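Trying the structure run again after the queue cleared.
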Amino acid sequence: MRLLIILFFCLSSMLSAQVEYQIKVLNFQADNGFQHKSKKVGLEMIEHLGEINDWEVITSVDTTDITMKNLNRFDVIVFNNNCGNAGPIFSKAQQEVLQNYINNGGGFVGIHCAGAIWEEGGGFQNWYEKLVGTRLVAHPKVQRAKLIIENKNHIATSHLPNEWVITDEWHTFSSNPRNDVNVLMSLDESSYVGESKMGGDHPFTWCQYYDGGRSFFTSLGHTVEIYSDKNYQKLIEGGIIWASGLSEENLKLPVLEGLIVDLNADYGITLESGDRISSWKNNVENSIIKSFNKQDQGRKELGSGMPRLELNIAALNGHNAVVFHRQELINENEDAFDHLITGSGYTWFSIMSVYEQVSGKPGVNSFFGNLRNTNVDKQGHYEGFWAGLSDDNQVWMGSRNAIEGGLWNDNNPHVLNHQPLETNTYYLVIGRMGDGVNKVQIELFINSITAVAKKMFPINQNANSSKMVIGQERDATNHPGFESFDGEIARFLIYERPLSNNELKKTIEYLMKTYNIKK
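Done. Tokens:
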């Protein structure tokens, strides 16, 4: 075993404003196949990036370092131009370790020949090619060509010109990864000669959230010279920072006090039947609200209520989203949210887009709610809080206190924005209710600290809401989907208190930057 431990403590940093935590990187180059002349300079480049960024970098060319105990030390593992075209690199146990590392939120950066690890076999081979995004197949001779930067908002590509001309090896791939990854740059096939092309759409660098972790891959990295190119160094530097989860856009939420629900479509999702979601885990640690799960009760077709996962959406800076078509996910803790409408107040945030709504109950196309519907004296007593859309996509919110029946009245305020949301456009929608035991204010916000609608709500300390549902107004087993919305949710947060204006402002700024929401 050879481990070269390189600890660098340097005050200067190319991205010091963006990195406050010392990222731990495994600079890995064990292989079984073609030997690039650029292997040595590839290792040295990652070590150099570690020096200027004050990272901890450990370089290894030995697969015996692939143990769970060892990998758990690292934020990112870099497969540094290591080929596997002649035979397997890893044992079965090491393959399982790598999968578990990604499952547990690990970061992966693949450089060039990391896309030509072909001989691992079995299910791991398929999993690994999905982690990379594809597999390298063929290439023309090394030559200059032009790259088109498709995403200038990403930390790895924000420094690059719109068109970048450089000399390297221009691989084609077994499949076009565009539908499954967030493409950062693509290759202009008219700028080089040779038969190895992909019909005009030729992604060359991308990132994705995959199987619980983050993966960044670039096919660049064949020549010795490219590793001394400053643009290339910053590309890989940004990829490592992004894969670590510690880039500026992915730092933790600025406000954590009172957070009880954090549903993030990048993490904690369990799939079955392809891309269908059976469970969405709450990412708030030690919360009694564990997850939101599928429910078949009341549906004629089992599993028809499961929303689906859409991966790596370019308009959301590459984040994932959950797509609802009259479907819902339910949390079974019936008492977890009662206090929000009986005095504590709340603030919720939803990164979402809307589709054309399907006709159900007129004006009720809910994207969340925990209503309890009862019929005392045939009046109808409704308790809980919810939000949804009119049939023409005007967004609304409300709280209900069980004092008096009726769909909307002074005890059940309809806080409505009269301007419809545009379909297939991402918004940050926010609801806030004040704390207190008398009358409190309810406010609705869209992409801004300025409320678009507000009303007063009389508190009833005896109100008793029901199960919280995402994608529906309640646990509606009698007519599932009838009062659900059509659209997407990428992030959903609930705080058990009204955030202050300053807290609201900071959280809005963070979410809009992270998810590329335009004002």
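The longest helix spans residues 39-53. Worth checking whether this holds up in the mutant runs.
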